[in-house]
Amino acid sequence: MKLTSRQLTRAATIAALYAALCFFLKPLCYGAIQLRISEVLCVLPIFMSEAIPGLFIGCLIANLLGGAFLIDVVLGSLTTLVAALLTRFIYKKTGNTPLSLFPPVILNALIVGLYVPFVYSDPGTVNTLPVVLSSMLTVGIGQAIVIYLLGIPFSKAISKLSF
């Protein structure tokens, strides 16, 4: 993807905003139960392709600065990248905003929710299937809250702007 200067500036701004929101809201963004307000920016791939690298880099920076475990830095950031790509793809195919915002919720629930109990639990903790499923559920609920309760109104506000 070749970016114009304007698109590169937007991508950098999105990355910086994502990372800054995580940094300033750190207690909500990391750990076994997460509510990343920065994930509201996951609606932006609907409107602009440059949001995809911006979200990926922002998540990567946020996870590095937030002291996340290496697996979270790599898999969490890649999950955000794939979710952003799918969000844009689904929106382009359907024009349906709620449907296109499903990938960030599902992918984070399944992928991040899968490893969170292993990296953020106390040493010696035995992570059983119910613990892992509970983690997937809590990550998914946190994502759904941000994506749908905040993201849909945010996307409606953004849609009134011209890019």
SSE topology:
Elements: H1 5-24, H2 26-29, H3 51-65, H4 70-94, H5 97-100, H6 102-119, H7 129-159
Identify the notable features of this structure and list them briefly.
single chain, about 160 residues, mainly alpha, Arp2/3 complex 21 kDa subunit ARPC3, 7 helices, globular
Textual characterization of the structure:
- By secondary structure, the chain is mostly helical.
- The chain has a single domain, classed as Orthogonal Bundle (Arp2/3 complex 21 kDa subunit ARPC3).
- Helix content is 72%, strand content 0%.
- The protein is globular, with a radius of gyration of 15 Å.
- The two termini are 18 Å apart.
- The model has no long low-confidence stretch (mean pLDDT 93).
